[in-house]
Amino acid sequence: MARVLITGSTDGLGLMAAELLAGQGHAVTLHARTEQRAADVRNELPGAEGIVVGDLSSIAETRSVAAQANGSGRFDAVIHNAGVGYREARRVETADGLAHLFAVNVLAPYLLTALITPPDRLVYLSSGMHQGGSADLSDPQWRDRRWNASQAYSDSKLFDLLLAFGVARHWPAVRSNALEPGWVATKMGGPGAPDDLYKAHLTQAWLAVSDDPAAAVTGRYFYHQRELRPSAAANDVAAQNALLDYCAGLTGTPLPDPPA
Prior knowledge:
- By secondary structure, the chain is an alpha/beta fold.
- It contains eight helices and eight strands, in the order E-H-E-H-E-H-E-H-E-H-E-H-H-E-E-H.
- It has helices at about 10-25, 35-45, 60-70, 100-115, 150-170, 195-200, 200-210, 235-250, and strands spanning about 5, 25-30, 50-55, 75-80, 120-125, 175-180, 220-225, 225-230.
- An eight-stranded mixed β-sheet has the order 3-2-1-4-5-6-7-8, sandwiched between helices.
- Helix 4 (about 100-115) runs parallel beside helix 5 (about 150-170) and helix 5 packs across helix 8 (about 235-250).
């Protein structure tokens, strides 16, 4: 049995992965943005081991989520599932002065990774749209550019790959991988999404707990339990380090030294 934390797991793919893992006998801790959503998901998955609560668009609340997670004991795997899509019609600024999409999709998984006791496995959700993303950090908060939600989302999903692969290099004892779930009919994907919803959550659960040798890797990118070649930009070590340094500067929290 593995202990697994899944962010953004009150609905959609996060909840589907939680239900699958709990049904397999694993101890799953959910994450909800608010206490009301936490109460709702307790009814959806009463067998969950626990629930952590906090809005990942806030640096302070993300720190609280990490503290709650650490307070329950070490996890075997953390799935960074939480995210927002490309439907924000304008640049929304968080209380920390950051673009909301960047704060949730990129900075939150970075900060949780830096603060939560390192697990054996880390799983980050990216997207096929990362192929159109840019790793340029000259204006990641979109203060000097006209807002383009689709481009901002694509950039964030490339940043998620840079994060996953950068952590894989810095923490060789931790299996850190990324995946694309496909374009599926969740709230983020919309009702017309063409991919199979009932396959979309399988890879994140598989990477978190499977003994399959194909899942016993690090610094890789998957789609439907098959390894894919990501954008060449994702393997740019300088870009990985630049993102880690940028996120460390925003949060005042560098990535810790490798776990023993």
